[in-house]
Write a structure and sequence with these properties.
The structure is a single chain. This protein has helices spanning 3-51, 54-96. It is an all-alpha fold and 97 residues long. It has two domains: 1-52; 54-97.
């Protein structure tokens, strides 16, 4: 072989060894990030699940409100919303006439 071809073959062998070393480093880094990324993936799946079921999230929110204010607080809040709705509905119907 000529000198140029021998130099190319030697450089190729060096690069292949460097590639193998870097591949090992990437595998090690990937194994360290596997658990945190799996947890993040589960969190994203939970968010997608919650966003696709708004009624369920409404029930959960109602339960949280009920837990904090109790049944009486929730009933009084619902009563206030009901009165506000009817007041707006009356105003809307009087405008249409």
């Amino acid at each position: 072989m000529n000198k140029q071809m021998a130099a190319v073959m030697e450089r190729r062998a060096e690069l292949l060894a460097r590639i193998a070393e870097q591949r090992g480093q990437v595998a090690e880094i990937g194994s360290r990030w596997k658990a945190p990324l799996a947890l993040a993936d589960q969190g994203l799946a939970a968010v997608h699940y919650a966003r696709s079921r708004p009624v369920l999230m409404g029930v959960v929110a109602a339960l949280l409100v009920m837990r904090n204010r109790g049944v009486v607080g929730m009933v009084s809040g619902a009563w206030g919303l009901w009165k506000a709705y009817h007041s707006v509905a009356k105003k809307q119907s009087s405008r249409c006439e």
